[in-house]
């Protein structure tokens, strides 16, 4: 019985979320928190995901239909990833995640990357991590309608990544101070928040100036990272958070966390990812972790992952 496993790191956005969707640069890192997608040979196709509380959902490979509309929406990233492959073979597909879904940690990207990586290997393809990244980026965009390459590239490639302005390229950065992060549950998905931001953009000319300012923050953060100027980096995190607040993508709990962090003298904190609740990143210190926990954030394993997605074949 052939089984293929893909282990995918999750990600933290350090600078530039939302602005990257409109061509500005951004910086993200892959982390030690992960998602595992297992594809096992079978006579029918069945999907399970414990973190989505979805078990044994049958998929018809001819028309890719699943049992109910609600489940089909929750599984849309998985279904669209499988749909990339013209030739399909029945398999049991299991998704295990160490964090809750939709918390700003790139779970949508990780589930796509995991399915593309594991299912391609299962079908006999040998994709590189960059090929997996590019395919997954298109799948995410197709499902969400809006979005950048940041999360799919970061979870596929691993490392600390700089996404330059107005291009599809990516550059690896070498240094980063230690990071603490955590998340609270949120009600909106990133796709919904992206649509809200687009409406704000269409209704106000200030929006484009805010995006450009975020772009400047990202460039300065890159310089600060190159020099390991941690003080400047921390200040830029606060500025980035303030700009995201003015776009309307933060939440009271995130704003209170970040403003308290500043008041008690922590060197840097901001929201991370799509926003509306979800994740926050801080420069690591015992005080930062205590603050996150005291505000109900679940701490996330935030060590750097350098490998990106890895694939293991198990034949039994
Ligand atoms: N364990 C999982 N199994 C299957 N699908 C999942 C899983 N985790 C997340 N997803 C899919 O991804 C969606 C969440 O994506 P969303 O972009 O809102 O969150 P995120 O990727 O964690 O946040 P961000 O994009 O801000 O980093 C879920 O609604 C679900 O469709
Ligand atoms: C909000 C956003 O910038 C990051 C979500 O993790 C969306 C994207 O880049 O696709
Ligand atoms: Mg997402």
TrEMBL record:
Keyword RNA-binding attached: no
Gene3D superfamilies linked: 3.30.230.10, GHMP kinase, C-terminal domain (3.30.70.890)
Gene Ontology BP annotations: isopentenyl diphosphate biosynthetic process, mevalonate pathway
Annotated localization: Cytoplasm
Active-site residues annotated for this sequence: 151
Domain called GHMP kinase C-terminal: residue spans: 222-286
Required cofactor names: Mg(2+)
Pathway: Isoprenoid biosynthesis; isopentenyl diphosphate biosynthesis via mevalonate pathway; isopentenyl diphosphate from (R)-mevalonate: step 1/3
Keyword Transferase: yes
GO cellular component: cytosol
Molecular function, one GO term: ATP binding
EC number(s) on file: 2.7.1.36
Cross-referenced InterPro entries: GHMP_kinase_C_dom, GHMP_kinase_C_sf, GHMP_kinase_N_dom, Mev_gal_kin, Mevalonate_kinase_arc, Ribosomal_Su5_D2-typ_SF, Ribsml_uS5_D2-typ_fold_subgr
Family listed: Belongs to the GHMP kinase family. Mevalonate kinase subfamily.
Function of the molecule: Catalyzes the phosphorylation of (R)-mevalonate (MVA) to (R)-mevalonate 5-phosphate (MVAP). Functions in the mevalonate (MVA) pathway leading to isopentenyl diphosphate (IPP), a key precursor for the biosynthesis of isoprenoid compounds such as archaeal membrane lipids.
Self-association state and partner proteins as the record states: Homodimer.
Name of this protein: Mevalonate kinase
């Amino acid at each position: 019985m052939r089984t293929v496993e893909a282990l995918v790191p999750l990600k933290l956005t350090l600078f530039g979320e939302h602005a990257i969707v409109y061509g500005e640069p951004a910086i993200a890192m892959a982390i030690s928190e992960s998602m595992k997608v297992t594809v096992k040979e079978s006579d029918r196709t069945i999907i399970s995901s414990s973190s989505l509380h979805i078990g044994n959902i049958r998929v018809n490979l001819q028309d890719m239909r699943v049992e109910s509309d609600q489940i089909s929406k929750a599984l849309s990233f998985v279904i669209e990833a499988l749909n990339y492959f013209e030739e399909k073979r029945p398999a049991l597909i299991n998704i295990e995640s160490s964090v809750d879904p939709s918390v700003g940690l790139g779970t949508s990207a990780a589930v796509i990357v995991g399915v593309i990586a594991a299912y391609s290997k299962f079908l006999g393809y040998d994709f590189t991590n960059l090929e997996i990244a590019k395919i997954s980026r298109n799948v995410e965009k197709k499902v969400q309608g809006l979005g950048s390459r940041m999360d799919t590239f970061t979870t596929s490639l691993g490392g600390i990544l700089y996404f330059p302005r107005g291009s599809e390229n990516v550059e690896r950065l070498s240094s980063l101070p230690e990071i603490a992060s955590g998340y609270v549950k949120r009600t909106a998905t990133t796709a919904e928040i992206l649509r809200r931001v687009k409406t704000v953009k269409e209704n106000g000319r200030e929006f484009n100036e805010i995006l450009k300012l975020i772009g400047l923050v990202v460039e300065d953060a890159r310089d600060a990272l190159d020099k390991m100027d941690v003080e400047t980096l921390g200040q830029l995190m606060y500025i980035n958070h303030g700009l995201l607040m003015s776009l309307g993508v933060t939440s009271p709990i995130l704003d209170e966390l970040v403003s308290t962090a500043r008041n008690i003298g922590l060197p840097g904190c901001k929201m991370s990812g799509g926003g509306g609740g979800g994740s926050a990143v801080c420069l690591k210190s015992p005080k930062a972790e205590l603050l996150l926990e005291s505000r109900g954030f679940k701490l996330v394993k935030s060590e750097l992952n350098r490998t990106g997605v890895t694939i293991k074949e198990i034949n039994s």
